[in-house]
Specification:
Helix content is about 40%, strand content about 15%. It is α/β, with parallel strands linked by helices and about 425 residues long. It folds into two domains: about 140 residues, Aspartate Aminotransferase, domain 1, CATH 3.90.1150.10; about 280 residues, Aspartate Aminotransferase, domain 2. α10 links the parallel β7 and β8.
Amino acid sequence: MPFTANKAFKARPRMLVGAKEMHYQSADGRQILDGTAGLWCVNAGHARAPIVEAIARQAAQLDFAPGFQMGHPGSFALAERLVRILPPGLTQVFFSNSGSEAVDTALKIALAYHQARGETQRTRFVGRLRGYHGVGFGGISVGGIAPNRTAFAAQLLPQVDHLPHTHDLARNAFSRGMPAQGAELADALEGIIATRGGETIAAVIVEPVAGSTGVLIPPVGYLERLRAICDQHGILLIFDEVITGFGRLGTLFAAQYFNVTPDLMAMAKGITNAAVPMGATAVRGAIHDTVVHATKSGVEFFHGYTYSGHPLAAAAGLATLQLYEDEALLTRVAALAPVWEEAVHTLRDAPHVIDVRNLGLVAGIELAPRPDAPGSRAYDVFVEAFFNQDLLVRSTMDILALSPPLIISPAQIEEVVSRLRRALERVA
Ligand SMILES: Cc1ncc(COP(=O)(O)O)c(C=O)c1O
C-alpha cells in the first residue's frame, strides 16, 4: 500500500466502500465526515452527478485515443478551458496522470527550454526543504522530505540545492493566515546563486503552500521575493499547485491569491475532482514556442505518457470545471475562510496542541511529539478520529492536516472541529 504502515493497516483495516458529497461510507456502514477532501483532491465533494455522467458518456463514446501523433477534441477543449482560469501568460498545457508526473514534466520542460535557447549550462534545480513534489526521481530530488529520499539517495538528480523551509514556530505560532515573519528566508536563493552561479540554475520549484509536510504557509512577502530573485537571474519559477489549485485558497489558484505568477505550474487532484487520475503542467506561451520552434520538423519534445489527456480524464476535467463554475466553488472559500479560521483556532487549548495555522480552507494542527515516538501522537488521533469519531483527517509527522471539500457548510465545519477535539482528548 502506498505511504502506509502496512502491518498496522492489515491488523485493523480502514476500508472505504462508498462516498457522497461530504461523506465517505466505511465498510462497517458508518458515515465518515471527510475532513481532507480525500487527499486534498475531491474539491466539489464526492460522486457528483455531472462528473459521473460525463465519465460514463465518454467511456461509451471514445474510451481511449492514442496521444502520440494523434489527438481527440476533449484534451484540447480542457486545455483551452484551463487557460481561461490560469493566471495570464500561462497559455499552454501538457497533460499527464498525476501530480508526480506533472512535476517531472515541468522540470523537463524547464531544461528543454533553456537548451532550446542555447543556455545549455542552465541545468541545476532549486527545491526547498519540506517540499513535496511527488515520488518520481525528479520530484524526490527537488523535494525535501528525508524519508522519501533516504533509500534512493544514491540515484537522485545530481544538481539540486534546497532552500530552507519557512516553518518557524518560535516566531509564528498560532498565526492566522500568512505568518508575519520570514520573508527574508527567500534570500537564501541569493546564497545558492552566489555559490553555483545564477546562470547555471534552470528553475526553482516550490509549493505556494506546502501541504504534505504539514501545512506550511508562506510568510508575507516571501513568494514575491522568490519571484524577483528568479527574474533578476533568468531563472524559471515553477509553482507546484497540486493541492493549492482549484479553489483551495478561495481563488482559482494560489498564484492569484498571492498575486505571484510562475513561469510553469504543476496541477493534478482537483483538476478532475479526483474522479479520474490526471495531472497537467501549464507553461508560459513563450516557453512553449521556444521549445516547439527549436525543432524544424518531427517531434519537438521527447516526453509523454500513454494516458496523457486520456478521454475519460478530459471528460471528467471538463465536467469538473463546469461544476466549479456553476456552483462558484473556486471562489466560495473566500467567504468561508473567516468561519474556518475561527473554528480551527478554537483547538488552541486542546491537549498537546502547540500550533494552529490556517489559510483558505486548509489548516494544520501541530502537536507536541511524544519524546520516545515522534509522529505517533498525530497518527493515533487520525486512527481515533476514523474509528470512533467518524471523521477523516490526515496526519503527517505530528501535524494533523485538514482540507475538506469546498462544499462544506459552516455547520459541518463546526462538526469537523468538535470531532477532532474529541479525538485529541481521547488520545491524550
Ligand atoms: C504539492 C504536491 N505535488 C505533487 C504531489 C504528487 O501528486 P501524485 O500523488 O498525484 O503523484 C502531491 C501529492 O500530494 C502534492 O501535494
